[in-house]
Fold this sequence. Notes:
About 45% of the residues lie in helices and about 15% in strands. By secondary structure, the protein is α/β, with parallel strands linked by helices. Helix 4 runs parallel beside helix 5, helix 5 (about 130-140) runs parallel beside helix 6 and helix 9 (about 235-245) packs parallel to helix 10. The longest helix has 19 residues, at about 1-20.
Amino acid sequence: MKKLIAMLLALVMVFSLAACSAGGEGGGKASDDADVAGVGNSNFDLESGNTSKVDKAKLTEEKGTFKIAFSYGQFTDKLGSQFKNALEYLAANYNCEMVFFEAGSGDEGITALESVLSAGDIDGVIQVGGSAANVAAANKYKVPYVFACGFPSQEEEIKGCIGYDNFLGGVIDDDVWAGEHCIEALYDAGCRNITYSGLTQGFVKSHDDRYKAMHTVLERHPDMNLLAENYSMGLWADDIATFNASFSNIEGMGFSAMVDGVYTALESEGIADGSVKIAAVDISSMTGQYFQNGVQVWTCGGQYATAMVAWAVLYNYLMDGTRIIPDPAQPLIRQYIEITSYEEYEQYVKYVEGVLPSYDADEIADMIHYLNPDVTYADYETEAHTYSLADIVARHAYYYDPQG
């Protein structure tokens, strides 16, 4: 029974991460600077940001080349391709080679990890999702391990992870913040009668944090009514038809993740005219269109940068043994990028899904003790809290508007 539950947990984790990033191409108008924006940053300029601060040849001469493995459920969805291309950008600017593999779930996932590690040439592992068993597998091969965009929620699992010396901690996104802002946006849009669709409770911490935060907002606004809530294995589109048939006074709908089927269901139910507002975590292919049409009032994204920071955590250790995260039982929590209008969505397409990733090579260099001896965990925390669309626009103005 324990084995069955573990496999189910792993499967749901993979599913939920994939659902959170579903959608493929970004909707709306792409800028000239990002002519293939929205397809997972496949147009990153792999050499941009490579200045004297990051001398790849010198790093290779001093420390050799590192081979880093990165695991995610699938690299064909939007977030998966963003992870892959952002880390390939780092590898192109640093003395690293990336190995990408789909871990699967349960025993299959451990087998996949061990298959990669058994070659004997992997210097470090970054994994989206995972468990203490994954850390143990990496420890068996004396390979350092970092979680990205996910962290065990059960105390027993966390204790299992920190029991291994190779465990360097994790970097995750602030899902409590996301859950609160999702519902607050509906309230600010005038919605008082709402519904909520989430992932089956008790399986994935990120989604659990979001729905718990939703109820916190409801307690804060007694004039806001939750007409109905449903938690399923991603059947959010089905919820729309059910809720619409049951209630004639729905003003807003909240979703713990976004998939294109939600937008299609709004069309089918005849409520894609702005009479019902929606807010959802994550960006899908039609998100821009629904902001432009006045239907969507809020979303958030930009998680691939979290994987870049996890890469920096691992790279610090590989370069000189620096453990940036002082307490591996406590993950570094980062902000999402918030989008509240179509104009912000267009900026997101240009600056986040454009030719330069959320952090250029120099900005990552500032996070590396070997290159910046003054860097501390406090700097990582500051960066985690200031990460936003406005922050990226300001930092990367030199690239998109060099004359400005």
